[in-house]
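About this split. The held-out portion is used to measure sequence recovery: a designer receives only the structure tokens and must propose an amino acid at every position. Recovery is the fraction of positions where the proposal matches the reference. Here is one held-out target exactly as it appears in the evaluation file.
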């Protein structure tokens, strides 16, 4: 490719709306242009990168025994009703109607479609196991599209779905996919960590995410890991052992005492001269319109995905002060946030109030709790007889734990590994892929069955496996850049090398440059010849910004038989013979295959 013909417009400045490196770089270096919020044009350079990522994914999926197909982007409502997800998927699902008023959606994922395909053609146990995948655009109407390709609304995904006759079969395929993913990301030049995760809206029980570890803002997930053993988990799934702390108060009897102006845990601790670990904190949530109280030890935070999983639901938010006051009124109290407790709270908004407790509150003795009275708290309370939602317990100082007591706690740095007890570390990650054991979550409701060896119908045991192609390409920029531009890993760079004649008017320089360029092309190197009549500084700047892994500059040195060779990753420069420069690049590219 001649640089004079390459369709690329680099910008002098970073775009003002970009927050993270990959977004800034990809726009400035002419890879992507925003069409509308969360929707991008992939310009020729980007498309080459995306195709390279796709091809690596395709090769490894094929090697792992999966078969590629392509499903439609637009999907009918009926299949989503069969799986039960039409109602529950929420606003990320982009719904539309056709001219006949039939309801459809833009595919955010394809479990329903693939299950219907299987139901149609996968009738016997003899046809399994099978794993089908596609590489295609997805659309999710994300609440906060941001970070360029990292969180778009339209993006490219590889999604694979496996069908097995048993849980053991599924587990084998799951492991097979985990290995394929490890190879894929390694080949893309990315360091990833496979971490345990929550399975969210897709469902299923076991799932793992592949994270690109980064200390930048681009890492949207906190990842907890242990250096001493191989434990690692996403924050929505992580568990930990807690350091020893005071969990029993010194009060000898239960009483309601005045605690004026103690609206926060800190103020209450200060007033009572106690650690936060002696307080049962009551948080009021609204989950799909329904009121939920979450009880957790005062020094700990609620992990909202865990709470969602505990009670079921899609949309979770903390209640407003207004809603809390209204809830108090409806139940006959007059308290403000800061003084709330579970007792006596029965209903709100036409729904019964659900109370869930984190495991940390279970061990507490002689604790402090809100009693729904302004400027007062209960102290010296204990779990025992008496119903949590029953106001009587305020007087007795004793109440039962709510029915649901489970892990709701957000793990924090400084806590200990649940497996080996060593200190847990925290870092941030970009999720580039994930794998799920779905089981029969889709096949059972959709009546997608096969005949087993005994002629009995059974639902398929399924797995699903996603990789964000466009996110992976962008994530690769996050650890691979410097102030001058991108440093693409060779395997996914749009071109492997650029050859720059310092002066296009110098016939000899042009001839040597063209010879090197042709040699590279002949040996399968994707090379660009910067034949523009520009100052060398402009060409060098563009080469660094675009991020060609190798730069061969042909200048005055050719009178001494040398060219300048630059490795973008290390920025090392050397003066070597043209043949040697070409040889290094050819060898590196050949070794990719
Ligand atoms: P996230 O938690 O980041 O929203 P997800 O868990 O909803 O992602 P999956 O449904 O598991 O995503 O999709 C599989 C892969 O698709 C993800 O691992 C990620 O690489 C990619 N992906 C998901 N959402 C987006 C998005 N909005 N933009 C770009 N890539 C995405
Ligand atoms: Mg995920």
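Reference sequence for scoring:
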């Amino acid at each position: 490719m001649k640089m004079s013909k390459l369709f690329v417009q680099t910008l002098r400045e970073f775009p003002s709306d970009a927050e993270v490196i990959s977004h800034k770089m990809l726009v400035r270096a002419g890879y992507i242009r925003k069409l509308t919020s969360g929707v991008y044009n992939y310009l020729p350079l980007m498309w080459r990168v995306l195709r390279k990522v796709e091809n690596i994914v395709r090769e490894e999926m094929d090697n792992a025994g999966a078969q590629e197909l392509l499903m439609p982007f637009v999907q009918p409502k009926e299949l989503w009703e069969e799986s039960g997800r039409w109602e529950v998927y929420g606003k990320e699902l982009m719904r539309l109607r056709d001219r006949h008023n039939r309801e459809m959606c833009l595919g955010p994922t394809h479990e329903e479609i693939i299950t219907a395909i299987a139901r149609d053609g996968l009738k016997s146990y003899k046809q399994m196991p099978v794993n089908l995948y596609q590489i295609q655009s997805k659309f999710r109407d994300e609440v906060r599209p941001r970070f360029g390709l990292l969180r778009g609304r339209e993006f490219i995904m590889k999604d694979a779905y496996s069908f097995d006759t048993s849980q053991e079969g599924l587990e084998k395929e799951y492991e097979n996919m985990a290995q394929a993913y490890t190879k894929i990301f390694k080949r893309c030049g990315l360091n990833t960590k496979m971490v345990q995760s929550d399975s969210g809206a897709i469902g299923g029980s076991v799932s793992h995410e592949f994270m690109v570890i980064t200390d930048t803002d681009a890492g949207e997930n906190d990842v907890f890991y242990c250096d001493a053993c191989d434990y690692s988990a996403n924050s929505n799934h992580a568990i930990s052992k807690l350091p020893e702390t005071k969990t029993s108060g010194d009060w000898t009897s239960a009483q309601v005492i005045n605690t004026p102006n103690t609206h926060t845990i800190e103020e209450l601790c200060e007033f009572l001269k106690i650690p936060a670990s002696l307080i049962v904190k009551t948080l009021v949530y609204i989950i799909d319109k329904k009121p939920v109280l979450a009880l957790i030890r005062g020094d700990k935070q609620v992990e909202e995905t865990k709470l969602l999983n505990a009670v079921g639901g899609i949309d979770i938010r903390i209640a407003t002060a207004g809603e809390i006051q209204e809830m108090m009124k409806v139940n006959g109290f007059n308290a403000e946030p800061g003084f709330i407790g579970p007792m006596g709270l029965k209903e709100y908004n036409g729904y019964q109030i659900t109370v869930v407790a984190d495991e940390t509150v279970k061990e507490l003795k002689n604790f402090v709790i809100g009693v729904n009275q302004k400027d007062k708290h209960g102290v010296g309370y204990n779990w025992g007889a008496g119903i949590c939602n029953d106001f009587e317990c305020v007087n007795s100082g004793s109440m039962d734990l709510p029915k649901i007591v489970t892990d709701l706690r957000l793990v924090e740095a400084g806590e200990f590994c649940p497996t080996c007890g060593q200190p847990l570390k925290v870092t941030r990650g970009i999720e580039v892929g994930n794998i799920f054991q779905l089981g029969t979550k889709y096949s059972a409701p959709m009546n997608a069955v096969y005949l087993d060896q005994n002629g009995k119908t059974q639902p398929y045991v399924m797995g699903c496996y996603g990789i964000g192609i466009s996110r992976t390409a962008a994530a690769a920029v996050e650890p691979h850049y410097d102030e001058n531009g991108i440093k693409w890993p060779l395997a996914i760079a749009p071109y492997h090398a650029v050859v720059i004649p310092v002066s296009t008017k110098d016939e000899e320089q042009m001839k040597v440059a063209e010879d090197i360029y042709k040699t590279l092309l002949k040996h399968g190197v994707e090379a660009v010849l910067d034949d523009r009549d520009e100052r060398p500084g402009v060409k060098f700047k563009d080469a660094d910004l675009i991020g060609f892994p190798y730069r061969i500059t042909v200048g005055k040195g050719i009178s001494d038989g040398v060219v300048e060779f630059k490795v973008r990753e290390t920025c090392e420069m050397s003066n070597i013979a043209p043949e040697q420069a070409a040889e290094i690049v050819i060898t590196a590219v050949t070794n990719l295959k």
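Annotator remark: The longest helix spans residues 167-187.
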